[in-house]
Fold this sequence. Notes:
Blueprint: E1 7-13, E2 17-23, E3 29-35, E4 40-43, E5 46-49, E6 58-66, E7 71-79, E8 85-91, E9 96-99, E10 102-105, H1 110-130
Antiparallel strand pairs: 1-2, 2-3, 4-5, 6-7, 7-8, 9-10
InterPro entries: Cyanovirin-N, Cyanovirin-N_sf
Domain Cyanovirin-N: 2-105
Region (Disordered): 95-131
Amino acid sequence: MPFHESAEDIRVEDGHMLHALLTNVDGEQVEAELDLNDIIGNNNGSFEWGGSGFADSAEDISFEIEGDASVPVLRASLFNVDGEPIPADINLAERIHNNDGSFSFDSHDAEEEQEEEQEEEQEKEQDEEEE
């Protein structure tokens, strides 16, 4: 489940440290933290899941819970290869989850997994046709 659905006091400190009180399986609230620099990078001015060190090439980093769905959004100006700041944002709930009171990072999103499964299925069918 996306972490924000079972969390309180969600905040980002020092521009890259995600903190929250996460609910564990016993219903207790546990302090948890995750260094976003370990899982998010900067790809030419855009946030990139699975990268690292985005904060090293960013300015004006902010975090807000936004909209009716209470979406946890990280925003920053990320520098591109020409050194120009590009406004960027990323929905942290896309890949960060609550695993029994600890943050966990899902390195693949559902769309990517579906594409990979389709490719594997096509390769399997081609192999069967060749036999």
